[in-house]
Design goal:
Helices cover 49% and strands 13% of the residues. By secondary structure, it is of the alpha+beta class. It has a domain of 208 residues. This is Phosphohydrolase.
């Protein structure tokens, strides 16, 4: 197994500082740290390292991260989702973490010979792809400030003036600027699979969004009184690692401190792998730490549209990802021979 490209590590409840690397080094490990400002600082450092050699993407990032409208959008999206709905973080920290994750995924895909749609179509080059993926990912959730319902479409409307303002000095030619903008808006519109993304760039945004499932994201919602499957299951995820895969360009490894984290993997991350153009290029694995709470599931891997679960009892269970959480629980109950009515 190769060294990780991206690691969001909250193991044992302690968050550790980033381990710096040389710009454009083939190996990177990022461990985000608290408090909130520190999380953004470490994500910013990782993003800037990945944008070395991509001047248009870096210029766009500099403009975005200091844009007062974007800053207000992130804060208001977080206010509605966390304070009014009791959801996990959807604000500035989430934007920066998923932005860093998206660039890690993009770099691995490019290294694996995958041609994003901007390049495949002849519209732009690698610099344009980095710019598109980063802006689309960092702006993907701002529509939540209006309402969670239809937040993807609200996000497109709200992102338009920000994108136009950022792109105009970078792309003086209206024709190309409009085409690049369409890819960015596609990332925003399709990040939650409603509708599913059609481009590699939008698929990267969706998968990067799905990787932000650790307990750092759920802790504040839990502290604010939101005790539900989303906050509880997020507290069960210690670490997400993005690295070069064995059989595919990208491998995502999820480490849980107990089996409750399966909800995050099954409901949040896995659909964003199998229902995007990245399905052919991403391996997804999850496991529980032996020293964690009493275990039911020890290891999970994605096989097509099914999870293959290795239970602590030694049994193996296959579950369709698109099925409900109740079906997953039923399959586990049957394998463990508990809670099943005998005939």
């Amino acid at each position: 197994m190769t060294d990780p490209k991206f690691t969001l590590n909250l193991s044992g409840g302690a968050l550790h500082d980033v381990e710096p690397r040389q710009p454009r080094s083939p190996v990177r490990s990022v461990e985000f740290a608290t408090p909130r400002a520190k999380l953004i600082e470490e994500a910013d450092r990782a993003i800037r390292q990945d944008l070395t050699g991509f001047p248009r993407a870096l210029a766009a990032y500099d403009a975005l991260q200091s844009d007062p409208e974007a800053l207000a959008d992130w804060d208001m999206a977080n206010y509605i989702t966390m304070r009014k709905l009791g959801y996990n973080d959807h604000g500035r920290v989430h934007a920066f973490i998923t932005g860093a994750a998206s660039l890690a995924i993009l770099e691995l895909l490019l290294g694996g010979g995958v041609r994003p749609d901007i390049i495949e179509s002849g519209i732009g080059d690698t610099d344009d792809v980095y710019l598109t993926v980063l802006l689309g990912t960092m702006l993907h959730d701002i529509g939540n400030q209006i309402h969670r319902a239809s937040h993807e479409q609200h996000g497109v409307t709200l992102a338009l003036p920000i994108i136009n303002r950022i792109l105009e000095p970078i792309y003086p030619e209206v024709f190309k600027r409009t085409k690049i903008r369409s890819f960015i808006l596609g990332c925003v519109n399709c990040h939650d699979l409603n509708p599913p993304p059609l481009t590699i760039e939008a698929g990267i945004t969706a998968v990067a969004d799905g990787t932000d499932i650790t307990k750092g994201r759920g802790r504040k919602a839990f502290a604010l009184g939101s005790v539900d499957i989303h906050s509880i299951s997020a507290l069960a995820v210690d670490q997400v690692v993005i690295e070069r895969g064995v059989h595919k360009p990208v491998r995502i490894d999820v480490t849980m401190n107990n089996s409750g984290g399966i909800f995050q993997v099954e409901e949040v991350l896995a659909p964003k792998v199998i229902r995007t153009p990245l399905a052919r290029y991403v391996e997804l694995h999850a496991r529980t730490r032996p020293e964690g709470d009493e275990q039911i599931v020890s290891r999970v891997r994605l096989d097509g549209d099914h999870f293959v679960m290795d239970l602590d009892s030694g049994a193996t269970v296959q579950v369709e990802v698109e099925d409900t959480q109740a079906r997953t629980a039923q399959a586990l109950s049957e394998a463990l021979d508990v809670g099943v009515e005998r005939k």
